Amino acid sequence: MDWTLNLLLLTLLLATAIAVIRIRDLLAAAIVFSAYSLVMAILWTQLRAPDLALTEAAVGAGVTTVLFIITIYRTVRKED
Amino acid sequence: MRKAIMLLALAGIGVMLIYAVGEMPPMGDSGNPDKTHVAPRYLEHGEEEAGASNVVTAVILNYRGYDTMGEVAVIFCALCAVVAVLGREKTGLSRTHMDVSRVKASVVVRTTVRFLVPVIIFFAIYIILHGEETPGGGFQGGAIIGASIILFTLAFGLPESTRKIPLKSRVPLESFAVIAFLAAGFTGILFGANFLTYIMPGLSEHAAETIRQVMMMVIEIGIGFAGGIIFTSIMFAMIREDKYELQPDSS
Amino acid sequence: MNFSRIAHNLNYVFSVVLFLLGLYTIAVKPNLVKKIMGLNIMETSVFLFMVSIGMVGSGNAPVVTEGVKPATMVNPIPQALILTGIVVAVSTTAVALSLCIRIHEHYDSLNAFEILGRDELF
Fold first, then answer.
1. Looking at CA atoms only, how far is residue A77 from chain C in angstroms?
2. What is the ipTM of this complex?
């Protein structure tokens, strides 16, 4: 396991998480959330969990993001 | 005010959790407590006991089969809850916002999706059927199937998608995972073993091995296809919009 | 506090921070969809924590192959638990989002305080 790459991915994870929370446009937040899931999928391969990487890439970046976008489309786009 | 109280509480929780992290054994050490009891047994005997070289699949299907059965029921209940809250899409009548939008998906997007989706579904079937030897299995393949159908719907719209995968072919597939699990469980009882046990005492070794492989394959296929179809149905139910239902078909 | 250990267990520290971020979002942000995003971040942090516990430095994926000793493989049990956990997380997200759609149809708002009709929870 490469500890430098691990630290880099964790930092990226934290940065995307903060971006999801700070961005007030919900559609942009949903897209950043999909980036968060992709970083998580790469981190799973670093942690020697290929099964989790497959599932997270399909579910986190695909299904969850599309569900968020559909909800934002049918409700409001701006926060508060 | 609310923010200040919350930040104070979070600081308290954070200090406690970080203190607990300081007491944890160093990460990545092969002598840690989690690797001394059950895990070596699973890793050393998983292949002969469960019949799967991928130990994660062995744990999911064999050692912790009850857990997975309950989990499959949870996904099915989630679909039931979504359909109860929002209702099914109505075939032939539904016109959604996404379909009446003036910007149609471009030819490049539609051609790419039309070529990609069969390849993705083929890959998902490989993942499902080969899950015992390589990374993969029912949940992974099911998620990939669901994502591919979502990709198709985003490019072509809901009416085209529901024409390709109509409601009456989805309904029996949605409950397939739970049924496959129960069938495999009761097969064990039929041959004189316990529920969801794959070791048959009354049979010869070869016959028991064959039955076990078939049962695991049926469960994997059940979880895979039911998972994908359940994700698809949840998305279809969420896209549907009532107010556009009765508009005449203008195309 | 054992600071050298905290520095070595970086994955645990980051999952704690992500957990706190998610909890903050759920408690403070008024928008319901934002709260669900925070819930997802919290779930992922717990997943990261559990899989990191089973990690072995310079280990191998838990697939039995020739020439790989079982002692060098990572722990498969957290991975199996988290695999089901990820799928359950999507299911709960789907139910929560469909409830959000219904709430918006009824109240014409996704702001928790507007729906409650008051400004402060306490």
1. 10
2. 0.91
